[in-house]
Amino acid sequence: MPAVIAPPAPFPRIPEPCEGYQLAMPNSPAAAKIVRDFVGTLLRTGAHPGLADDARLCVSELVSNVYCHTRSELVRVEVMVDRDQVAVHVTDDGLGPLPKPAARPEGEGGRGFLVVDGLATSWGSSTRQENTRRTRTVWFVLTEPGRDTVAEADADPVRVTR
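RE: above sequence
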């Protein structure tokens, strides 16, 4: 089956001004803590201190999944912040299928995507073929309570897994 080639697109319309931050690191047991602290610091010192805890938890779950379920050498994180929302992309060089939420939430493990689904305004995943490298990205968007974006008012939140 050919890879789905689609960039992650959590912002239907990118509002201005928008700030972007990137972090790449080895896929290691320490990666989740490093990314968690990175995202928390960005949000607590920026426009969205109220989203810092939810963003830290969501990104920690996604980076932990990369460590536990892939052989990717690197984890790449991109954080996009605007006045209304925060979008976080976690990318790895995974070769397997895209992740799926646990079928049985009462089972041991497998609750990371349920946590993201419960906290995020929207989330999804995609794969991309870049030359000889295939990447997988899982992304999520958080908005302040009561600050839904115009695009969300026009349509249901996007929860896509490709």
